[in-house]
Amino acid sequence: MATKHQGNAGEIRALDLFIKLMRTHDALMVHLRTIIGNFGLQPSHFGILETLYHLGPMRQHELAAKLFQTPGNITRILDKLQEENLIERLDEAEDRRCFRIALTRAGEARIGKVFPQFAAAMHELFKGLSAEEQKQLNELLRKTGKGLAYSLKNE
After folding, report:
1. How far is 155 from 142, CA to CA, in rounded Å?
2. Less Cβ crowding at N or C end of the chain, within 10 Å?
3. Long-range contacts for 89-94 (Cβ within 8 Å, ≥24 apart)?
4. Of the candidates 64, 63, 103, which has an alpha carbon nearest to the alpha carbon of residue 86?
5. How confident is the model at residue 48 (pLDDT cuts 50, 70, 90)?
6. pTM higher than the cut 0.90
7. Where are the domains of the chain?
8. CATH class as words, domain 41-122
9. Which of 88, 76, 92, 85 is nearest to 44 (CA)?
10. What's the 3-state SS for the chain?
11. What does the alpha-carbon distance between residue 132 and residue 110 come to, in Å, rounded to a whole number?
12. 8 A C-beta contact, residue 16 and residue 30
């Protein structure tokens, strides 16, 4: 679907790109919900478990920033994951006002089971693009993301 906006060529091109990115995002989220839903996880839960699995324990505010979550929302999600014994909040020796979030053994086992299937599904999803096209898309998305992050910092 293309934009019906009658602006200049740059605006039309940018709006068409935005529409395609949002539709792709929505399709990816449906796909993600299907894959991880089979393991009883929601996308926000998966994001936290996956981040901790690959990066290790981190402070709650660092985790929130990495996942673009608000402090209130991350607290709610962490409460749910802690109820399910998938994460634990560890006292931070250097700052008693915050916690370090870590996977429990059950959390590590759950994400360790889910992630290989997720990785295989992503491989399958992007196989329509050549390796070079995947690299190009990755670089373009990284560049766009960095530009957005810079823009948000300077607002």
Report:
1. 20
2. C
3. 89/60, 90/57, 92/59
4. 103
5. very high
6. no
7. 41-122
8. mainly alpha
9. 76
10. CCCCCCCCHHHHHHHHHHHHHHHHHHHHHHHHHHHHHCCCCCHHHHHHHHHHHHHCCEEHHHHHHHCCCCHHHHHHHHHHHHHCCCEEEEECCCCCCCEEEEECHHHHHHHHHHHHHHHHHHHHHCCCCCHHHHHHHHHHHHHHHHHHHHHHHCC
11. 33
12. no
> How far apart, in whole angstroms, are the C-alpha atoms of residue 59 and residue 89?
9
What is the b/e burial string over 25-49, where b = at least 16 CB atoms within 10 angstroms of the residue's CB? eeeeeeebeebbeebebeebbbbbb
| 74-102 tens-digit pLDDT | 999 999 999 999 999 998 877 777 889 99
Residues 55 and 95: their CA atoms lie apart, in Å, by 20
Type of residue numbered 106 = A
Please give the structure tokens belonging to residue 69: 């979550």
